[in-house]
Description:
The complex is a heterotrimer of chains A (about 350), B (about 600) and C (about 110). Chain A has about 350 residues and is an alpha/beta fold. In chain A, about 25% of the residues lie in helices and about 30% in strands. In chain B, helix 5 (about 70-100) runs antiparallel to helix 8 (about 130-155). In chain B, helix 23 links the parallel strand 3 and strand 4. In chain B, the strands form three sheets. In chain B, strands 2-1-3-4 form a four-stranded parallel sheet. A four-stranded parallel sheet of chain B has the order 6-5-7-8, with helices on both faces. A two-stranded antiparallel sheet of chain B has the order 9-10. Chain B has four domains: about 5-250, no CATH class; about 265-355, no CATH class; about 375-480, Rossmann fold (3-Layer(aba) Sandwich); about 490-595, 3-Layer(aba) Sandwich (Rossmann fold), CATH 3.40.50. The model of chain B has no long low-confidence stretch (mean pLDDT about 90). Chain B is mostly helical. Classes of the chains: A alpha/beta (about 350), B mainly alpha (about 600), C mainly alpha (about 110). Chains in contact: A-B, A-C, B-C.
Amino acid sequence: MSKTAIIIGGGVAGMETAGQLNRLGIEVVLIEKQASLGGHLKNWDRLFPDRRESQEVFDYLEKGMNDGISLYLNATISDIREAGGKFTVILEDGRELSSDALVLATGYDLFDARKKEEYGFGIYDNVITSAELEEFFRNNKQKNLFEGVQSKRVGIVHCVGSRDEKVGNLYCSKLCCVTGVKQAIEIRELMPDAEIFCFYMDLRMFDRHFEEMYYEAQEKWGIRFIRGRLSEAAENPDHTILVKVEDTLTGLPLKMKVDLLILLVGFVPSPETKRLAGMLGLKEGDDRFLCPSDEHLLPNSTDHPGVFLAGTLKGPASIAATIVDARAAALQVAEYLVNGER
Amino acid sequence: MTFNLFVLPFILGLIFLVVVLVKKNRQWIRLMSTDDRKKLKGWYRSPKILLALKEIFFESLLHRKMFRRNPLLGYMHMSFAFGWFLLILFGNMESRIYSGLWVNPPYYPIFLKFFIHDKHVLPFEIFTVPGFFRFSMDLLLMFVLSGLVLAIIKRSRSKWFGLTKTTQHHFTDKVAITCLWLIFPMRLLAECMTAGAYGYGGGFITQHVGNVLAFLWPLNDKSIAYGFWWFYSLSLGIFFVTLPYSRYMHIPTEVMLIIYRNFGIKAGKEQSPIHEIEIQSCPKCGVCIDICQMNTAAGINDIQAVYFLQSVRNQQVIDGLVNRCLVCGRCEEVCPVGIHTDNQRISQRNSFVQLQKQDYSYLNHEADPQKAELIYFAGCMSHLTPAIPRAMTKILDAAGVNYLFLDEDRSVCCGRPMMLAGKLKQAEELIERNKKSITGSGAKTLVTSCPICYRVFREEYGLDIRVLHHTQYLLELIKKGKLPLQTYFRKVAYHDPCDLGRGSGILNEPRELVRKIADPVAVRDEAKDAPCCGGSLGLLNADRHERDLITKEALANYLDKDAELLVTACPLCKKTFAKHSPLEVVDVAELVAAAIPKVEKETGELVN
Amino acid sequence: MKSFGYTITKDRQIDYDANDRRLIEYVEGIEPSIRICMECGSCSATCTAGHFTDFSIRRLHTLLQRGETLHLRKEIEKCMLCGKCQLVCPRGVNLRNLILIIHQALDKLHHDL
Lengths: 342, 608, 113
């Protein structure tokens, strides 16, 4: 008799875990609270570092969603019960689904930039987030964004909602740096005569090809980097934005007028993850992301037998890393279903 | 007139106490500023003295304020103070019946039952004049003793009184408290034994207890009773001698404090004799420990006003104790004696930093600022909450006000943060420089969004123009019909900022504003009892974890209701709460701005 | 350090071994939060006094860490203690207290600074 796994969350991690498990011959149920699969991936235009279309990655993931996977869209979980090693997931509409293992792949939320009120998001017209810029790119609306702009100076702010005790997030979101550099290049491609500035504290180009991208951004695209964290932004009567920052490398305060300010918003744990973790008694770290039972050796297991974690509910991760993590999760689930708890 | 040697300790103690108190009081008056001394001139002719007497009756004797905060503690203090007072009063009246004189030596009523053994008055005979007094005196003694029982319980079981931690005592305090606790039991025993030995002359309690004692202990005679009269007199005498050097100095000092206060003499930010008077008036009741958020939220329970004042009194002030305080004013609000705890802290901080210099010569407002009817001063914190000044400029434009946004480009500090750190001289310099730029514009009104600035503008700037917090000004605009408002109906919880509510008494204006546009929910601690958000600039040395705990505790005051929005009227509160609040936090000005209907440019019609 | 009526601050190296670190040790002892600075500069960017003068609390703090205390007394005299620096600090450094403690340290250690 074949075993069943329920995957909660239909983003990159959930889709890849589901596809892998299904290919390993395990019956898979995939629950997604939204109307379609893909999660945040559907909002991105092109991916760093090679700027391939995000659609390509989605297409790959979607191919894995064959008939062996029972898909529940628009489904919110109201309760999870466990008896004799079997899990019963109860949906809000009363349907009950049961399985031998559970995989949480509920992902992350983007930091709400309004919480950083001094940057003026939601108050000033020309302050947008990196996620909004992706949407513009994806819907080919970027032209509207720069309409009527004369000098075309763009500021990109790193670490918005990350490495910031004042919003309660001390951790680094890791991927904003590379996203900022990617978006800077993309803006440059659209507006060859624009001046583009990245305001950073440290450029964390940690992964393969990231540092080269930074190099290229400087050498080929003329992107400028100012080391200093924005303290605040103000709106001028002409709706340009005045940013205030210390140019820490010269040791002098610097103010600059920009036509568009882009806030690189970081990862925050999603409330839905917290809710489900509460039902299952899973532990969260000081950063409020979930903790696996062993960060080095069992990165996808939890202290709760039969419950596994995949993807960014454990903290910020790139799409490439999420896919690797999802496969590792699938393997751990498969091993558990075959051999039981080790 | 009767006399006995045993009254000497009492008499000598009393004389000593009176001399010390008179000297001390003269010293205080001598050290007062000329202005303060002037206020006291002709005090005996002033009606203020009657108000003072009324307050002394209600606060020093009845302990009304303490009663309201903590009934059990209030009763304890009242039974001692009011009970003892009535014992003295009734004792004097009773003694006149027997001496037939209007003036008796002070020991005579105190030790009356030693000198007089009235055979003709029976213990329960309360409808004759002497019988009524005899009965009352016993009853009053019981009243005082009931307070003593509570005091003893409080020492070991402070939790029963709702106190998390009771105050610590030093040596003189211990001697004084021992004597104080002995006085009334000694009196009881002396009177009982005397009544028992004679077989008459006691009241309904003293006589019957005395009879039982005489029955149980046949050896009891007048000489043993005499011993107890000595003990009684000794405990009184020693208590009087130690009183000026112990916490019980608060009893006479509070009386003087009330008088001075009624004549308009108050503890300011700089040291003065009234500071010492206030410190001496602290009864160490501990109400300030329970109200303090540093204690309830962060578990820091050794820095509260009572400990701080004690350290000043013992001249053992340390920086930690002075600086670790929100200066939120909550303890000042509940202090039954009315000690200005905030100014006490600031004045101590001031004496720590007196030598330090500041240099603000760079603040040269040479160019005359533009002329306007009204100055809008957002305050430096508002630069970090741009939604607030944004809402204000929108409103001012909509109402067609001719205004100057004084700190639009660069923020200038108002000087209050400097004051809270105790740097009064330095703050003064800052204030002088800022005043020039305010008066230069010829404006008649100054409106600010920041309660911190508002308070210092009002209290320290001495401006001859109107100074308003934006909540006051916005309400005025609405009442004058200059702002059309649509109801923007949402359930909101309003948080009173410390410097606006408790600090400046602006409680109604923001509430009235909120009521005009939203649906306010009731919150547990509000108005003058509202918690501090935890962002206070008065707290000089807390770490971020302690601040977080205070903020979270304060938020809980607003979150357990069905509010959808948390509304405040201070950029610092807004910023501080926003970090932890699951609800959106907005300023009252933002609510008002959102309620202004949009005007369609072409048609001039209102649209929602 | 000897001063001959004038000082040259440019183009000189920090002589870490020769520098007097008593001041920073005193300050750190009372306000340990100053260790957690990541030199982002938001404090000096928002600084009220920094708009009018070249006062930079971040630079001052970094120099102090290296034992560089030249002009320190004059520098801190410009601070208005408004607390905005503390309100934007992403690490939660108690910057206002830093200024107060430096004042205190200068008084206590009688530095000829």
